[in-house]
Amino acid sequence: MTHDNIALLKNMPVFDRISEGALAVVLSESRTIRVPAGDHFFLQGDEALYMYVLVSGEASVRKSWTDRELEVGLLLPGDCFGEVALISTSGRSATVRAVTDCTALEISPLNLQVLRERDVDQFIEIQMNLSRELCRRLLLSDASRMLITEPHPKTDEGGLSWPLLS
Fold it and tell me: Start and end of every Cyclic nucleotide-binding domain (predicted)?
């Protein structure tokens, strides 16, 4: 754990309004990993075990959807990804591949459990921040889906539309 890592976390929405002491607890249980260019942090569908904070490098976020693989984002230093792992054991919703050599902090649910035992208020604040961040991403994902969804044959308007449920 370094002061640089605490500063990195303090600038992230997930750790907004979290004390340096609480961040030090989270980081004390984390580890730093290196992922070479071309290798994957994880694949879509993999079990979600960790959240990552990109310290250096660039990584591509790709999603398979209706027989297509789409790049849905580019991660830069200071970005976090895989947050769902901190609140659920569901499968990964996307693939993340290192575009350049990457270094990242790996944070597990255990990191947050240790914080919960020491400072429940800060634990709750992180959970609220996670919820807000995941909602923000869901809204962005919905907006992006509107741009890539093919027009439904039952609509008589041109352009893109949501598929009809009936």
Answer: 14-108
Q: Write down the H helix ranges in 53-119.
A: 109-118
Pairing of strands 95-98, 59-65: antiparallel
Instruction: Report whether pLDDT(125) > 80.
Output: yes
Distance CA 133, CA 67 (A): 28
96, 54 in Cβ contact below 8 A? no
| Residue-range domains of the chain with CATH | 3-148 (2.60.120.10)
Rounded Cα–Cα distance for residues 152 and 159 (Å): 9
Lowest mean pLDDT among 7-11, 77-81, 133-137, 144-148: 144-148
| DSSP string of 61-73, one letter each residue | EEEEETTEEEEEE
Instruction: Give ∠ CA 142-137-30 in degrees, rounded to 5.
Output: 150
**pLDDT at residue 40 tops 70:** yes
Averaged pLDDT of the chain: 84
pLDDT of residue 146: 55
B/e letters for 60-79, b = 16+ CB within 10 Å, e = fewer, are bbbbeeeeeeeebbebeeeb
